[in-house]
Design a protein that fits this description.
Largest sheet: 6 strands, mixed
Radius of gyration: 21 Å
Helix content: 25-40%
Structural class: alpha/beta
Number of strands: 12
Order of helices and strands: EHEEHEHEEHEEHHEEHEHEH
Low-confidence stretches: 284-288
Distance between the termini: 31 Å
Strand order of the largest sheet: 7-8-6-5-11-12
Oligomer: single chain
Number of helices: 9
Mean pLDDT: 93
Length: 288
């Protein structure tokens, strides 16, 4: 953005990812910077997502972009949450990609011990791109594990519908999957009579168990969620969605194909004055 002509700034949600921001003070953390042999003077000014920070001034840019307003929207998963409409406190997004992410919007300011407990559970606490809120983020590599198993059993995305149907009819509990998040996924108890559908069910159940553990940790520490919205490529798996509904209850499947891009465009529209400060694109503009 600076290269296009914008001011040198750091958006709050991205600043949190450095480990150098004091959450409660919403400012740079001098002790953390000092430990890293850095100083607050190294860090650019902090801004909220969607703040206009200049205009495109480069001469080699496409003519239609010259003079366009520049802004930083912030963390990609948080932009995706806005893109799917998860904008109320307590809303949770399950983004099912190669790395599956759980993102929950909460009121700003937890107790220090709650932040520590979340960190111990593998959950980060950041300022949200949504004004006055914090964001919880946790992730697994369940999507990567599922793709590895599809590759191993010779099923491509075109064959996923039939495999899902087989998995929904398959028994549970005989085959086990281990090694999500490691270099190799291990399948146990592949004995006589085991079908590809049974293997696939074991995979989706194991990946859902990991998500459920993170979801429960969030709930135990900060309270119940309001709504869960699922997005991402793996949301097309009927077997995976069935496993999620058994564990998590009611879910809403987002029709938005590129949630992060839509969320970023909403904030860009606000920065440029096309939308008001709380404006969003009409629902009919979200591709189904």
């Amino acid at each position: 953005m600076r290269g296009l002509g914008g001011d040198e700034v750091t958006e709050l949600a991205l600043a949190c990812r450095t480990g150098w921001l004091d959450l409660s003070r919403r400012d740079w953390w001098p002790e953390g910077l000092a430990w890293s042999r850095a100083t607050p003077g190294l860090m650019p000014p902090l801004v909220e997502a969607g703040t206009p920070v200049g205009h495109i001034t480069r001469s080699d840019i496409h003519p239609r972009l010259r003079g366009a307003v520049l802004t930083v929207v912030g963390h990609d998963h948080q932009a995706a949450a806005v893109g799917v409409g998860a904008t109320s406190e307590g809303d949770e997004v399950d983004s099912c990609g190669t790395a599956e992410a759980i993102v929950r919007t909460i009121p700003a300011y937890l107790k220090d011990q709650q932040v520590r407990d979340l960190a111990d559970a593998g959950i980060t606490t950041d300022w949200s791109i949504q004004r006055g809120c914090w964001s919880l983020l946790a992730g697994t590599e369940g999507g990567l594990a599922m793709q590895r198993v599809l590759n191993a059993i010779g099923v491509d995305r075109d064959g996923l519908t039939a495999l899902d149907a087989s998995a929904l009819e398959a028994p549970q509990g005989r085959v086990h999957l281990e090694g999500i998040g490691t270099e190799a996924v291990h399948l146990r108890n592949i004995g006589d009579g085991v079908t590809p559908g049974e293997v696939w069910r074991a995979v989706v159940e194991a990946t859902t168990d990991e998500v459920m553990e993170l979801h429960n940790s969030m709930t135990n520490i900060v309270g119940k969620h309001q709504e869960i919205i699922v997005t991402g490529g793996w949301a097309h798996s009927a077997a995976l969605m069935a496993a999620k509904r058994r564990r998590l209850g009611a879910l809403r499947l987002s029709p938005v194909l590129e949630a992060g891009a839509r969320g970023a465009a909403i904030y860009a529209g606000r920065a440029a004055g096309v939308l008001d400060s709380n404006g969003v694109f009409p629902d009919h503009m979200a591709p189904a």
